[in-house]
Design brief:
Blueprint (H helix, E strand, L loop, with lengths): L2 H4 L2 E5 L4 E5 L2 H21 L2 E8 L10 E2 L22 E2 L7 E8 L2 E5 L7 H4 L13 E5 L4 E2 L3 E2 L18
Parallel strand pairs: 3-9, 3-10
Antiparallel strand pairs: 1-2, 3-6, 4-5, 7-8
């Protein structure tokens, strides 16, 4: 294969609509650098949605709400990490099913968090059971796509058990 054929490569990068043409050596270096810049920019700015979900059916909800503070907060655009009083980390229950949800966007990585039934540590932080904690906290890892975390019961590793009612009925 001759060197001229080696450089007759066309690359289409549709996400950013970048067209690179490596048909000659003069443009190859410039286009290669442009391709690296675009790839670096996209990887550096990759953000994925994470949805936290906590079942609060066994809890009396604080008038200050349910919050999800953690080591992800700065990465999600909040002022600081581990601040339960940040309004941006308040989970909501719009359908009144007692499952509070919060969605944020963060770059790939591993993060720790907790659920707090209030907006401060002293009066509402959950105790995360040993079966699902790392350093006393919950964790999640974002790698290549959006993430919806499993529903867990507040202070538990699993969802709350379903409520069943048993009654004796005489006919």
């Amino acid at each position: 294969m001759s060197k001229t054929k080696l450089f007759k490569i066309s690359v289409f990068f549709t996400l950013k609509h970048v067209y690179l043409n490596f048909k000659n050596r003069k443009n190859m270096k410039k286009n290669y650098l442009l391709l690296l810049l675009v790839a670096f920019t996209m990887s550096a700015s990759a953000q994925f949605k994470v949805t936290f979900r906590v079942n609060m059916k066994n809890e009396t909800i604080s008038s200050n709400g349910v919050h999800v503070p953690g080591a992800y907060q700065k990465a999600a655009g909040m002022a600081n990490d581990w601040v339960p009083g940040d309004a941006a980390c308040e989970a909501k229950d719009p359908d009144n099913d007692k499952v509070y949800e919060l969605q944020v966007s963060v770059p790939p990585g591993t993060y720790e968090y907790k659920f707090v039934n209030n907006n401060d540590w002293a009066s509402g932080a959950e105790g995360v059971p040993s079966g699902c904690n790392v350093n006393g906290n919950r964790t999640f890892t974002v790698s290549t796509g959006d993430l919806v975390l499993d529903i867990v019961c507040f202070g538990s590793c699993t969802n709350c058990p379903a409520t069943t009612y048993e009654r004796d009925v005489t006919f």
